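Sample entry (150 residues):
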Amino acid sequence: MRKIILVFLIFILSSCGYSSIYKNSENKDLMIVIEGMSGDKEINELIKNQLKIYSSKNSLNTFYVSFDTNFQKNIISKNSSGKISKYQIYIKTEFTINYKEKTFNEYFVERFNIKNISDPFEQDNYEKTIKNNLVASIREKLILKLLNFR
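Predicted structure, serialized as tokens:
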């Protein structure tokens, strides 16, 4: 009897209507045209490259986007000898979006705290990975906003 109830509950819960907010966001019909970039060059290139994924040449929903980025690496704490032990990577991006003769401004801020690694090569690789992840988060937030404008 318990097995029947368990199977019944699984069927009920599996069709509760849950779906991820990012589900099929790559397949949405929109085109992003980057009109201008300013601020940190490395972050700008990461954003530009990640937004290319969403450009569909045949889309009727064309968004003209320009953005300004601000990247900071702030010291959070030092150890007793005065060496940096933790710092924060901070990325602020301001988007100006033109869509069907309307202009919207969106601001996104992402930050991540990092422990300092003694090996500079590993530290640089780790920072690049963190930057890519933060930019991916900004990209997903922007895409969700663009999908809501349509």
